[in-house]
Amino acid sequence: MRIAIISRNKNLYSTRRLIEAGEAKGHEMHVLDPLRCYMNINAKEPEIHMRGKELPQFDAVIPRIGASITFYGAAVLRQFEMMGTYPLNESVAISRSRDKLRSLQLLSRKGIGLPVTGFASKPNDIPDLIDMVGGAPLVIKLLEGTQGIGVVLAETRKAAESVIEAFMGLNAHFMVQEYIKEAGGADLRCFVIGDKVIAAMKRQAKPGEFRSNLHRGGSATLVKLSPAERATAVKAAKTMGLNVAGVDLLRSNHGPLVMEVNSSPGLEGIEMATDKDVAAQIISFIEKTAKAHKTRTKGHG
Fold it and tell me: Where on this chain does Mg(2+) 2 bind (predicted)?
């Protein structure tokens, strides 16, 4: 198969591993920088060009689209879909998962466990907003933030009011969530492929920090999931419409709670913590499922 990886940097660990895994199975792997791709959008023969040349037809495309270029990256992926290339994750599903508020609303509609979440735009609503999520301590998250950036733990009501007022003053979009104290600064990253969790790790925040992201100095260890945690992770990925996803869960007193569903989960942390060849499993999934024009949306939306 001829497989394209949409990635800004072919030297990134995840991109490199996917190339190695694909080539080991005899596939022709190509890395395409989405920002270097440009599109001919027409009714008869949509095309993608790069550096002055039309790209050949690909059998499958693996999107590794960074959050900062979601809009343009999704447009390039949508063009591949219109040309009949099989996408590992569809453009619509990626856009859906990147909108933190929309993704939580969709998960909520399916009855999937979540931290209680509030969203408001007016300063007058702050007192009730804080009460809605159970009061302080609480977590305030910028909707555009990634890798733990723009996430604040407000330990007192006064601190929460100050941070919320500051974010509102900057016209920033944010949500307020209950703080799950019993999680103890740890979360679970469940790596879902198709309808299975194929690997899982526990990420523990460093002392004095509540964000467990590995980019923030958190540590990762192998973890055994409960059946409820596995089922929640798979259901969350399916709700987003993602074939491959990193689902982040918190262990709470009332069961697993979904924090986020990541459409371009990194491979380094999970492969190192679990000693599993996740990249090879992604390629195997493509081998089993890839068919021309096989998208739910047919490139629309």
Answer: 260, 262
pLDDT in tens, 250-265: 999 999 999 999 999 9
Q: Which residues are annotated as a binding site for ATP?
A: 141, 178-179, 187, 211-213
State which amino acid sits at residue 67: A
**Binding-site residues from annotation for Mn(2+):** 248, 260, 262
Structure confidence at residue 209 (pLDDT): 59
Backbone angles phi, psi at 110, to 5 degrees: -90, 5
Rg (CA), the chain: 20
Greatest Cα pair distance in the chain: 61
What is the distance, to the nearest Å, from the Cα of residue 14 to the centroid of all Cα atoms in its chain?
Answer: 14
Please name each of the domains of the chain with its CATH number. Answer: 2-89 (3.40.50.20), 97-101+182-285 (3.30.470.20), 117-179 (3.30.1490.20)
Q: What is the pTM of this model?
A: 0.88
Better-scored residue on pLDDT, 43 or 75 = 75
Which element (helix H / strand E) includes 125? none
pLDDT tens digits along 7-25: 999 999 999 999 999 999 9
What's the pLDDT tens digit per position in 212-268? Answer: 565 555 778 899 999 999 999 999 999 999 999 999 999 999 999 999 999 999 999
Neighbours of 253 (CB within 10 A): 8
Dist. CA 171–CA 240, nearest whole Å: 28
Binding-site members are: 141, 178-179, 187, 211-213, 248, 260, 262
Residue pair 299/77 in contact (Cβ under 8 Å)? The answer is no
Which residue ranges are tagged as binding site for Mg(2+)?
248, 260, 262
| 267 token code pair | 């491979």
Q: What pLDDT does residue 205 have? A: 77
